[in-house]
Structure formats: structure tokens, C-alpha cells
Amino acid sequence: MINQYLKELEQDPYDPDEFVERMVRRSMQESQLKDDEFDPEMIHDIFTQAIQDLKVLQERQERKCSRLEQAVQEEEKQYGAKLSEIMDQHSHCVTVFSSLDERMSRCGGRALEVGEKLGAARAPRARAAAARDLLSHLANFLNPGPVLTDLFNDPNKLSEAADVIQKLYTIAQELPPDKFEVAKKKIEAKYDEIERNLIEEFVKAQNQGNLVKMKTIANIMTNFKGYSQCVDAFIETSQMNTLLGKDIFAAVLPLCKKNYTIISSVFPNPDQVMSKFVLNIFHLKLQKYIQTKLADKNDFEKYLRNLYDMYTSTQRVCEELVVAGLVAADGNTSAGDLRREALVSGAMAGATEGYSALETRRLKAVLANALGVYYSEKQHVKRQIQGGGFQELRRDLQAVIGTRANINIAQIENYGGETFLSEKLVQKMLNDAKMSFLRCKTLCTSNELPSTAVVLLDVVIQHLLIEHVDYALDLGLQSIPIAENKSPPQIYFFEIVNQTNKIVKMFGEHFQESVLPCLSSTSKQAECVQKKTVVMEQLENKLDAGLERAIAAVVGWVKLHLQTEQKKTDFRPEGDIDTIASPACLTVVSYLNTVTDKIYANLDGDNLNAVSLELAVRLHRVIYEHLQNFQFNSAGAMVAICDVREYRSALCGRGARSAPPPAHALFDALHALCNLLLVKPENLHQVCEGETLAELDQSILHNFIQLRSDYKSHKLSNFLKGLS
User: Which of 238, 401, 492, 506 sits in a 20 to 30 Å window from 349, CA-based?
Assistant: First the structure.
């Protein structure tokens, strides 16, 4: 059992309560008798034996712990002694290393001192030997006749000859010209010859891809005055037969990257050489290509498109070079960097001069041509339209006289409902203008941009808003029939309002997206906004005038039709009749439904509310005054009520096509007034004080009640006494 206890005690985690519980369960099982009884004596013996076993186990574990502690103490003493021995050895090593380091420092100092003394003793001898050789070569140039030294005639010794001739050339500059003129010329001639040979060898090595030889020659050439010629030869050879495709701009960056690797490996000043390399591309290759592309100025559209493409492509190449670190965004000539603005200007070579005038001419021509094509397709010849109050008065007088005399003096023409407005045309014109403003923003300088944008805006306003929209409004105003016309007037001006609003919205979006970005933070911005506002007000005034004239024509015809077609018997019929609206009313309502359909189809927002309310108010007045001219019996009153209901349905509508609340209130009141023509005399007082009629003036109620045919026979005035 001790082993069993030991196994249970070593469990992780160990729970004493759980241990006791397990012992209880085991003892219960062992002391189990019949009928679920158990033997307590046996349980006691089991627990007593378990306690003794645990004590024995405890003693055994304590002895084991003592042995382990003693072993650990002995090992600790051994490791301490060993560590002390290692520390002593380390201290000895440090002492020995310090001694050796000191000795090495003394030896190194002595060696350096000896080396300096040897170098000091050798340098004068080397300089003397070099001076002797140099004087020997100088003597060869002082002797008459050609120089026949092997050094200057052996191609394999070109590097040594270059070193000597460069020094001789420097010495020759200090010699008196009188005595040594011939020698100086011979040295200069040999200097130029060796310089040419070096450049030829450099180009040959470049063609062979020998970067080591190129670097050697480039280092030698740095001391020659023709070093720039060596750089030019490298650039010319590198760019030979390159940039010849249709799109040479795409090949610029790969060419620069490829040669920058070579330049960095060969030349001692790679930044300056790379700057010259890039400059040669822009000022020679790209400039020539751009000039060829822009040679033909006869076609404005093609020329400006090519100009924009060339400029943006050049800018794109510069941006790519900036990202690659080959061109600086800001200039730093001391480091050999280039500004991208200078590169673009050099490549364009003044191609943008005179752009503003050319763009203006092009936009005028394009917009004028678009208008001309549109009116030609409509088979319409534009005419001069005179405006002003006198012309309007003259037109109205001619129309009235013509109507009364049944002749067409005013020559009012509706063009078959043609509005002479085209959103498709406007979109095309705005697209052309958008391209002009985009080019303007890209190609103009910061000083030219605001003034050019203002000129282009004037062109757009003149052709799009004045010559197209304003002209269409003038035609639309003249095509509106006069109010005295006997036939139902055909009103097409609502379609004109709808199209004008859409076009104005399109122009407003164009103004925000294309015009304002060219004028931000400039004094011209307020000027352009003011121009736009003035034109918008001019168009709005004509729209208001046209809507006013259209409403007047509708109201005038309704009034005239009711005066001529409404019969007195409509409201005083004899015998029993069907209570339906009168024929005159049905004709008017049919026409009004057509008009309101056009209003709701073409107007929206405040315009819709204002026009529908104004039409309802005016027609309410006409209908109210029209009913004042008749006498009504009971059946006629029902007809009048049906008429008013039809008028209200046509003018006020329901649901989404509902007129503003004031219009409903007017016709509700008119309907209530018509009820006064029908109610029994004893109920008049009560009806007059109802919610709808209580707010009306009493004279209106009295006047309406007097229209009843039984007003005098029934002495209805007695029923109205006391009406406050």
C-alpha cells in the first residue's frame, strides 16, 4: 500500500481532501456487509494502518531529502573551488595580454618611424628621377625636327604618354614665349594628338563594352582640357540609333537607367555626366521630335491635341526620372541635378508661345461650327430678334388686332413645337470646352492661366448660353400665343423651361469642374463668378417672362371660352337633367389637363410650386367672376358644383401631382360658396358660419346667395339677418 500512497501523493496537483475521500471509498468497499451495512471496526483498523504507513513513508522521504541535501552541498564546494581556479587563470591571462599589447604597440611605432624615414629618403630620389625623365622628354621637344621618342609613338604606351604630355603641357604654359615658342607649339600639338587618341580609344572601348578600359581613360582625361569632349563622345555614342520609335517617350527611362549604371562605373563625377546625358535627350532628341510633330499648324484641332500630348508626355517622362532619382524636383546645379521644369521648357522649345490665342480661336470655331450644324439640321436660319418693352407692346397690339380682324398680323409662329434646344449639342460643346480648359491649365504659365481662362469662359458663355439658350428663349417667348386667342393656345414654353434648367445645370457643373480650378486663389475668380451670375439672371428673367406669358395665355383663353361658350341655361335648366359638368367646363378642363400635364412633366421644385399655384389662383379668380354672371336654380347649382369639382381636379390634383395647399383652400372655398346655391333657406345661416366660409367677407356670401333664382321669391335676405 505504501507504493500506492506514494503514487497518489506525487500526483499534480495534489488534493488532501480528495486523497481522504478515496481512502474512505476503499475502506467502505472492504468493510461492506450484507444489506448495505459495514463493519466500523474494520474501517478503524484500515485508517489506523494507513496512518502508520504514511508515517513510515514520511520518515523514508525525510531520510532521502537529507541525503540529497548533503550531496548538493558537496557538489557546491567542488564547483566553488573550480570557479576560483578559473578566475585566477583569467586574471593571469589578462595580465599577459596587456603586456603583449604594450610590446606590440612599441614595435608598431618603431616600424612606422622607420617607414617614414625610408619614405622621406626615397621621395626626393623619386621626384628627382621623375624630373630627370621629364626634362629628358622636354629636351626632345626642344630639339629641332619631329619628336621620335618611342613613348609618344607606341600605341601601347598611350597612358604613360598621356601622363607625360599633360605635365609637359602644364610646364610649357610657364615658359617664356620668345625662346620656347616652337617647343610650346610642338607640345600643344602632341597634347591635342594624344587627347584625340584617348577619346578614340574611349569610344572603341565603349563599343566593345570594356568598362575597365573606359574607366582608366576617363580618369586620365579628367586632367585634360578635353574631358568634356570625352563625355560628349560617350553621350553621342550611347544615344546613337536610340529613341527612334513612334513613342520615343516610353524609351527614355530605360535608356537613362541603363546608361546610369555605366556612367557610375566609368566616370569619377557620375552626377554631372548623367545630368548632361539627360539634358542632351531633352534638348536634342525630344526637342527635334516635338518640332516635327508640331510642324503643321493648319489644323488647329490636331495641332493643339499634339501640343497637349507632347507636353504631358514630356512631363510624364520627367516625373519618371524624378521617381528614379535621375532628375531633381528642385534644382541643385552644384550637384549636377536638373529641374524638371527646365527640362520640359527645353524640350518644348517655345512651342507653347501663342497657345492662348490659338486655343481661343479653336474653341470659337468649334462651338460656332457645332451651332451651325445643329441649326442646319433643323433647317432653321437664325434671325436677329429685337427685344425690349416697345417690341413686346407692338407684338401684343398686332396680335390683338389680328385676332379681332381674323388676320395674322403679328406672325406668331410656334415652329411646330420645336424648342431649338439640344442637350446633346450642349454636352458636345461642353466637352470641347472642357478639353480647352484642361489644355489651358496644363500649357499656360501661372501668369497666363487666369486671363486665358476668362477669355475661354467668355467664348463658352457667348456661344452656349447667349447664341443657343438665350436665342431659344427669345424664340420661345415669341411663339407663346396671346391671351385673346379664340383657339386653345399651344404652349411649348414649359418644354423650353425644362431643357433650359438641364442645360444651366450642365453648365454649372462644367463651371465648377473645369473653370474654377483654373482661377482658384486669383483675382479673376470673382470676375468670372460675376459673369456667370449676370448671364444666369438674364436667362432667369426671360424664363419668368415666358412663364408669365404662358399662364396669361392659358387664363385668357379660359376666360374667353367661358364667356362665349357658357350658356345661361347651363345653370337654369328646365326639367330633370343628369347632374354633370357643363360642356364649356368639360372643354376647359380637357385643355387644362393637357396644360398641367406639361407643367408637371417639365417643371420641378420651386418652379413647379410657383407656376401651379399662380395658374390656380388666376383661374380661380376667372371662374369666381364668371359664376357671378349667372342665376342658378337647384339643378343649375348642382351643375356649378360639378364644374368647380372638375376645375379643382384639373388644377389642384391629388397625391404626387398636388398643387400647393393655398390652391386647394381657394377651390374648397369656391366649392362651399356653390353649396350656398343649393342648401335650403333655413340652413343658410348655419352653412355661412361653417368652418370653410366663416373667414370670408360677408359681402362675398351675400353676393353669391343673391345668384339663387329663388332669392327674391323666398325672401332669403330675411334668413341672413344677424349674420356677423
Answer: 238
- Dihedral over alpha carbons 350, 354, 360, 361 (to 10 degrees): -110
Indicate left, alpha or beta for 18 from its phi (over 0: left) and psi (-120 to 50: alpha).
alpha
362 closest CA partner among 461, 466, 437? 437
Most confident of 22-36, 411-425, 638-652: 638-652
**Integer angstrom CA distances of residue 361 from 300, 302, 304, 311, 509:** 8, 14, 11, 20, 24
Alpha carbon of residue 463 to chain centroid: 27
The whole-angstrom separation of Cα 424 and Cα 426 is 5
Q: Give the per-residue SS3 of 198-226.
A: HHHHHHHHHHHCCHHHHHHHHHHHCCCCC
Minimal CA–CA distance to 580: which of 649, 643, 667?
Answer: 643
C-beta separation of 615 from 645 below 8 A:
no
What percent of the chain is helix, strand and coil (3-state, nearest 5)?
A: 75, 0, 25
- List the grid coordinates of 635: 339643378
Which of 579, 683, 677, 691 minimizes the C-alpha distance to 633?
Answer: 677
**Amino acid occupying residue 462:** Q
Confidence of residue 402 (pLDDT cuts 50, 70, 90): low
pLDDT over 70, % of the chain? 84
**Angstrom distance (rounded) from CA 708 to CA 719:** 14
pTM as predicted? 0.71
Q: Please, are residues 674 and 641 in contact by the beta-carbon 8 Å criterion?
A: yes
Q: How confident is the model at residue 334 (pLDDT cuts 50, 70, 90)?
A: very low
The residue type found at 168 is: L
Beta bridge partners of 339: 328
Q: One-letter amino acid identity for 348?
A: M
How would residue 262 be classed by pLDDT, with cut points 50, 70 and 90? very high
Contact (Cβ atoms closer than 8 angstroms) between residue 553 and residue 611 = no
Average confidence score pLDDT of the chain: 84
Three-state DSSP class for 685? helix
> Can you give the pLDDT at residue 482?
78
**pLDDT tens string 342-371:** 888 888 888 888 889 999 999 999 999 999
Q: Check pLDDT > 50 for residue 336.
A: no
- Considering only residues 390 and 46, tell me which one the structure prediction assigns the higher pLDDT: 46
- Return the closest-CA partner of residue 422 out of 376, 359, 478: 376
Cα dihedral sign for 262, 263, 266, 270? Answer: negative
Residue 400: other Cβ atoms inside 10 A: 16
Q: Long-range contacts of range 239-246, CB-CB < 8 Å, 24 or more positions apart? A: 239/277, 239/280, 239/281, 239/285, 243/281, 243/285, 243/286, 243/289
Whether 225 has a pLDDT exceeding 70, the answer reads yes
Sign of the four-CA dihedral 145, 147, 149, 154: negative
Task: For residue 153, give the nearest of 137, 132, 142, 171 by alpha carbon.
Answer: 137
Amino acid of residue 82 = K
CA distance 314 to 345: 9
